[in-house]
Amino acid sequence: xxxxxxxxxxxxxxxxxxxxxxxxxxxxxxxxxxxxxxxxxxxxxxxxxxxxxxxxxxxxxxxxxxxxxxxxxxxxxxxxxxxxxxxxxxxxxxxxxxxxxxxxxxxxxxxxxxxxxxxxxxxxxxxxxxxxxxxxxxxxxxxxxxxxxxxxxxx
Length: 155
Prior knowledge:
Layout: H1 4-7, H2 16-23, H3 36-41, E1 46-54, E2 62-69, E3 74-75, E4 82-83, E5 85-99, E6 102-114, E7 121-123, H4 137-148
């Protein structure tokens, strides 16, 4: 009689890792750059420069990603001209998708610019964050998707 641990083992062993070696010739392999982590995490316009892991007893750990902007300029939404004149900057933090089962927060400077062409101040917009939100769009979509698949009693 087999040991009890083997009774629950799947009858068909998946050898995907072994087959992946043969499939790698068909992959578009890219070099790791400073922006690789940002691209993989869905943070266009930012570059992850530092991180901190905050252990929490009895709860899930928190991962803090500290980012800087990829470019020193922004495009004015009024006239479409490029501006490099930063009016002010404040630290911003928002919730993002979990990484490796850890609650994840992204920290970055939220910048306001002065347009030299139309003389209007404007806030830099990032494509993955809705205006005035504290969560990334990807995180909001994930929460929405989870709500679609649960009953009200389970909440």
